[in-house]
Design a protein that fits this description.
single chain; alpha+beta; four-stranded mixed beta sheet; 6 strands; 26% helix
């Protein structure tokens, strides 16, 4: 069984996907450590650890929508990983969310139901995302 302190979500309360992910964790009876990364951004070292644990590139953790991505010209493939990390440090909104870290792994949970792969506890009941999509049925089973 996962303890609450063993699960961390890097969360933006203004993001629907992040909210759904947090709700799915709570639907499993877990109260995770919630890091509102816009208020308390992870250190560069911590961000590098998360990216390595997810097995993705720095570029893959960048968020474009609603960020200064375009105005900074971050689509240019000549940006190094170090420069991209500098940009995320300067503008934490560039970090895509939610990132969830558990003993079973670390993932960028887009879509939110990817978090189900990281939870050892079953869902406590049905779960429907804010857009009406049913993710978990009344018996706590993943729908798809």
């Amino acid at each position: 069984m996962q303890s609450p302190s063993s699960i961390t979500i890097f969360h933006n309360p203004a993001c629907g996907t992040s909210g759904n992910t947090l709700a799915l964790i709570r639907n499993a009876g877990i109260e995770p450590v919630v890091v509102e990364y816009l208020k308390t951004p992870p250190s560069r070292e911590r961000l590098e650890q998360l990216i390595a644990a997810m097995g993705i590139t720095v570029r893959e953790v960048l968020r474009q929508k609603g960020t200064p991505y375009d105005e900074l010209g971050l689509a240019d493939p000549n940006w190094s990983d170090a420069e991209l990390l500098d940009a995320i440090e300067a503008h934490p909104i560039l970090m895509n969310r939610p990132i969830v870290e558990t003993p079973l792994g670390t993932k960028l949970c887009r879509p939110s139901e990817l978090v189900l792969d990281l939870l050892s506890q079953p869902q406590g009941g049905a779960f429907t995302k804010e857009d009406g999509e049913i993710v978990v049925d009344a018996e706590g089973r993943r729908v798809r």
